[in-house]
Write a structure and sequence with these properties.
Length: 169
């Protein structure tokens, strides 16, 4: 009988600083291929042509006020803030926990301080459009995307290497 691996616990590091006990939630970016519809003469119907990747965006929620993160707002580099999410996933079938690490480079474009009321829980939400994304499972790189350097690696294969070789020479 199979059971799904569920997130048992997590931590986030922002520019190397641990936020264990503070991070509430992390939303990974959606990965999407940008496509364009094409139907040429003689074709029965349209196909979707690969036009690169869609923009990626992540989000994180902290359990309260974090002045150090607010100070990172407005960085002029598209990859000026580096984040690393570490999650432990485990199925309740007695199997070993699985380490999942997500590395992202981007910048905070939106900070939502939420509502503040004495005695109530507070959360701050951070929106992070990405220039870089890498997902590592048990030490193996599953996917790496570097928008600035033209790297698009999935399962060890750089799907954009041939194009970069042509335009780089």
């Amino acid at each position: 009988m199979g059971l799904p691996r569920k997130l048992k616990n997590l931590n986030t590091f922002v520019d190397g600083e641990s936020y264990i006990g503070v991070i509430s939630e992390f939303e990974e970016p959606k990965l999407a291929i940008a496509t364009e519809e094409w139907r040429g003469g003689g074709m029965l119907g349209p196909v979707m042509l690969d036009m690169g990747l869609e923009a990626m965006e992540a989000a994180l929620t902290m359990g309260g006020h974090e002045a150090a993160l607010i100070r990172k707002f407005g960085t002029t580099r598209v990859d000026g803030v580096r984040l690393r999410l570490v999650g432990a996933y485990q199925a309740d079938n007695g199997g070993a926990a699985q380490a999942v690490e997500v590395y992202i480079g981007g910048r905070f474009t939106e900070i939502d301080p939420g509502k503040s009321k004495a005695g109530d829980s507070t959360e701050q939400k951070y929106k992070v459009p990405l220039a870089y994304y890498r997902r590592v499972v048990d030490g193996r790189i599953e996917i790496e995307i570097d928008m600035l350097r033209g790297i698009f690696i999935v399962d060890g294969v750089d799907r954009y290497a041939e194009i970069m070789a042509i335009i780089s020479s």
